[in-house]
Specification:
The complex is a heterodimer of chains A (about 375) and B (about 300).
Chain A: H1 5-14, E1 22-25, H2 31-38, E2 43-48, E3 60-63, H3 66-77, E4 80-81, E5 84-85, E6 88-93, E7 97-108, E8 113-119, E9 134-138, H4 154-163, E10 166-177, E11 182-184, E12 188-191, H5 217-222, E13 235-241, E14 246-251, H6 253-265, E15 272-277, H7 282-293, E16 300-307, H8 313-327, E17 333-338, H9 342-356, E18 360-363, H10 369-380
Parallel strand pairs in A: 14-15, 14-16, 16-17, 17-18
Antiparallel strand pairs in A: 1-6, 2-3, 2-6, 4-5, 7-8, 7-10, 8-9, 10-11, 10-12, 13-15
Chain B: E1 10-14, H1 19-30, E2 34-39, E3 47-48, E4 51-54, H2 57-63, E5 67-72, H3 76-89, E6 93-96, H4 103-115, E7 119-121, E8 127-130, E9 134-137, H5 143-149, E10 152-159, H6 162-174, E11 179-184, H7 195-203, E12 210-216, H8 221-230, E13 238-243, H9 269-278, E14 282-283, H10 289-295
Parallel strand pairs in B: 1-2, 1-5, 2-4, 5-6, 6-7, 10-11, 10-12, 12-13, 13-14
Antiparallel strand pairs in B: 3-4, 8-9, 8-11
Classes of the chains: A alpha+beta (about 375), B alpha/beta (about 300).
């Protein structure tokens, strides 16, 4: 999960990294009260988005009065920053900057260890800094001591990275003020979703999506599916709502992206991206299928997966049948699946189709997944 | 001969009393793999499917000689301790089947394994199979299905996706060919064994005449393939499919596919395909094209 700047700064502060004095405002909140509470005249008004180059897109404004702050907030709340939804605004004290540096810790694919990246040329994209101005240190995840002494906040950031189960922590710019103190002017933190069980407090983070908008009701509903102590026993909680009208129920992370590519090639437009994987129980698949099929205006349903290794096709299809029995869609349904208990699973679907007069077409492994995308297109159009 | 197992490989199952562990014992044994022991703290002395259970990995390795492969089927929160136990005892090949291990725990285990020269495959790997020799984990599924899909042959298979390992192996079989070894490397951001680690092994394997890879958008591992081929470290025919073209329509940071497949500018399907074809690698438009491309060259 990616954090907003204000959340990232809170985490940094708990690990001893100095951050500017600031306050968060949301749509409809009293900006005047917030500005006066801050007791600073010169402020920075910053859009809170999950990624994106805010400076370049005018989503960071310097203001010297309440009127300026109010105007900035009004404009920023109407913006999208590189496709990202502005969830809130942080108003914070303007720093008297003497120097800007860059500091981050993330995982390095090559060494498969954390990597600390530092540059004395901060405040710009690290991609735009010349290699000779970038210092990289591979860190040993097994050591609490960062082993770097000459970079401000290196140890504090390492503590934050380890203690918070972060995938990435980035401070850019890391500012030295004219009176010589170091302070994090920005914070970009990504947490590791798989470590949620070690962090009770993560439950309190507000719902978010990277899709440049608030999560839809269906997206919010889906996140409940994999909750609970059996969270790792098959996943069924993946649903991204899209603009099209073809409902998608894919199984397997790999098959799902191959199938999305194949679907788009046929000219059809997906209503969602959805995938269940591992060996989820009937109930999880049922809940997911019901949410997928609840979107209005659907013109087709594509249920597709590869030749499963161990996913029980009967069990997962039982969940889909539960949803179809309830919703009884009139549009074409194309199924392509194989694997353990495929005969029983297909039979369940066949009976369900007869019972509910569904326009359902079943395919096994004799036909490739990509071919059934074409078959779907012919039935829908 | 497989690149990762032989007919006499002795295999340990950590987390043998769990549902998935038990299923794997049966799946491996049905395919002729020697499952010689299992581990579950507190259950030492029992047997599961006729396999002796031990309290610790150390105990298992003291009682049974030549355990060279272990498979880890414990829940994610117990994974780090289980993997470190295997590392501590020095088992050369550790297959981590567990999904959703925190990345910090994965990095910790990978560092410890590397220090001792041990191989981790995964995490989130279903395992691997060498047709006619044996399999680790449940790749291929039940015995009747695995025999329908897998047969000894000349094509090596590497996949980020467990389902696609099977699906592509099926396409190979449908074409009248067989597989030398098929490996599911797992879909996590940090991989214990990467494409290039395996390509180097396939390069030295006489049975393998060509390799097909199912890759994904996001991450950098596919770029390493291009580097390896360009430097002559792998010289046999190679066909690669990279899924996730549609993901480029999403904003940066969106995660579709596996955990490691996050939309990142400059690391998408198009960039990967370009780098690979410049290195002489064949690019498949659809996943099933992998097989027609490779069969034309072997």
């Amino acid at each position: 999960m990616n954090l907003y700047e204000f959340e990232g700064k809170e985490l940094c502060a708990t690990h001893g990294i100095a951050v500017p004095k600031g306050i968060v405002v949301r749509r409809g909140e009293n900006i005047f009260a917030a500005y006066t509470a801050l007791e600073v005249e010169e402020v920075v008004v910053k859009a809170q988005v999950l990624s994106g180059k805010r400076g370049k897109y005018n989503a960071i404004r310097f203001c010297s009065s309440f009127e300026e702050v109010a105007t900035a907030c009004e404009e920023i709340f109407q913006m999208q920053v590189q496709g990202q939804y502005v969830a809130a605004i942080r108003i914070e004290e303007k720093l008297a900057i003497a120097e800007e540096q860059y500091l981050s810790i993330s995982y390095d694919n090559q060494t498969r260890q954390p990597i600390l990246v530092h540059s004395k040329k901060g405040g710009v994209d690290i991609e735009d800094v010349e290699a000779c101005d970038i210092r990289k240190e591979i860190l040993d995840i097994r050591k609490e001591d960062v082993g770097v002494v000459d970079i401000p906040f290196a140890q504090e950031l390492w503590n934050c990275f380890l203690g918070e189960d972060a995938r990435q922590v980035e401070i850019n710019p890391l500012v030295k003020t004219i009176d010589g103190t170091w302070i994090a002017a920005d914070a970009k933190v990504a947490l590791d979703d798989d470590a949620f069980y070690r962090h009770e407090s993560w439950k309190n983070f507000e719902a978010r999506t990277m899709m440049g908008r608030l999560p839809t009701d269906r997206e919010k509903e889906v996140t409940a599916i994999d909750a609970g102590e059996d969270y790792y026993r098959g996943t069924a909680g993946k649903y991204i709502e899209m603009d099209g009208d073809i409902a998608i129920l894919f199984s397997g992370g790999g098959a799902s992206i191959a199938n999305m590519d194949a679907l788009i090639k046929t000219g059809l437009k997906p209503a969602n991206y959805t995938e269940y994987s591992g060996n989820p129980p009937r109930e999880k698949v049922r809940d997911l299928a019901k949410i997928v099929l609840s979107k209005p205006g659907l013109r087709g349903l594509w249920i597709a997966g590869g030749v499963a290794n161990f996913t029980n096709i009967k069990e997962t299809f039982h969940g889909i049948v539960d949803a179809l029995d309830e919703i009884k869609p009139a549009y074409p349904i194309i199924v392509r699946r194989a694997g353990p208990y495929e005969r029983e699973g297909m039979e369940l679907l066949r009976e369900c189709a007869v019972r509910n007069h569904l326009d359902l077409h079943l395919f096994g492994k004799e036909v490739s997944m990509s071919e059934t995308a074409g078959i779907l297109a012919r039935h829908v159009n | 001969m497989g690149i990762l197992i032989t007919p006499t490989t002795n295999v340990l199952v950590q987390g043998i009393t769990g549902k998935e562990g038990q299923k794997a014992v049966v799946a491996m044994r049905d395919y002729g793999t020697m499952v010689v022991g299992g581990v579950r703290p507190g259950k030492g002395g029992e047997t599961i499917e006729g396999v002796p259970v031990f309290d610790t990995v150390r105990e298992a390795c003291e009682m049974i000689s030549d355990i060279s492969v272990t498979t880890v089927f414990v829940p994610p929160f117990a994974a780090k301790a289980a993997i470190l136990e295997a590392i501590d005892v020095g088992i050369p090949q550790i297959n981590v089947i567990v999904e959703r291990i925190p990345i910090k725990d994965t990095a910790y285990c990978l560092a410890a394994a590397r220090e001792k020269g041990l191989r981790i495959i995964g995490p989130s790997s279903l395992g691997h199979i060498t047709p006619g020799i044996g399999r680790i984990g449940v790749v291929g599924g039940p015995k009747s299905q695995v025999d329908e899909i897998f047969t000894p042959g000349s094509v090596g298979v590497i996949s980020r996706s467990g389902g696609m390992t099977n699906e592509i192996s099926w396409q190979i079989r449908k074409m009248g060919l067989g597989q030398s070894t098929a490996v599911h490397v797992g879909g996590d951001m940090l991989m214990g064994t990467t494409y290039t680690d395996l390509l180097r092994m396939f390069e030295n394997d006489e049975q393998t005449k060509g390799v097909v890879i199912f890759g994904e958008h996001g991450g950098v591992y596919e770029f390493e393939i291009a580097e390896l081929c360009a430097s002559g470290g792998y010289t046999k025919p190679l066909a690669v499919y990279i899924g996730g073209k549609f993901a480029s329509a999403f904003p940066e940071g969106v995660n579709v596919g596996h955990v490691g497949a996050i939309v990142e500018r400059g690391k998408g399907v198009v960039e990967k395909e370009r780098a690979l074809s410049e290195a002489g690698v064949m690019i498949a438009e659809k996943y099933e094209d992998l097989v027609s491309l490779i069969s034309a060259r072997i």
